[in-house]
Amino acid sequence: MTDIFDPNQYKEVKIEINQNMLTKGGEINLAAKDPTLQRLHIGVGWDQNQFDTDPLDVDISCFMLNRQGKTRVNEDFIFYNNYEGTDKAVIHSGDNRTGAGDGDDESMLVHLPFVHFDIVQLMFVLSIYKGEEKGQNLAKMRNGYFRLVNSDTNIEIVRYELADDTEERPETAMLVGVLNREGPKWHFVALGESVEGGLQRVAEGYDIIVGSA
Q: Is residue 26 part of a domain?
């Protein structure tokens, strides 16, 4: 049996990326999909209803969670007010407040070898900034997606289309996906779980206090 973690085997592994689509509940072993993976680009994109005049500000956040399902320190919460996680394992590229333009509207870079051994999950959340105040919710999103890309090769590994799971959803936040650690392996699960109360409610569940979300 080939050891996919043996660096001498990397050049012999053929990466199949033509079946990279996941739906809600789908899971993939990233090491089996791409044994060369070290730096992971997390990208999210969206459009809004063409008749809406107020821009839809969708934010991506990441919670670095221990075995108790909690953050250890504030830096384990990476979002629009904190661009670098603990040990710089997760880095936010910046806040996009409109979703305008082609390509990823917001993104993060995950350095998998930098993730501290205490961390067993990376939970990714999409939320609408001041959604309740503006009367905006997940149903306002169009053409939403969440994808994982090998940052060194620019090869897309996973794409999760969100349309079916945001349609008619009145909530303002979603647990969109999670990276689960099993020893040296990382598994991605597409969650698509809508959450009431926005980012603030999610953060409080992970022992983080957010002033406004």
A: no
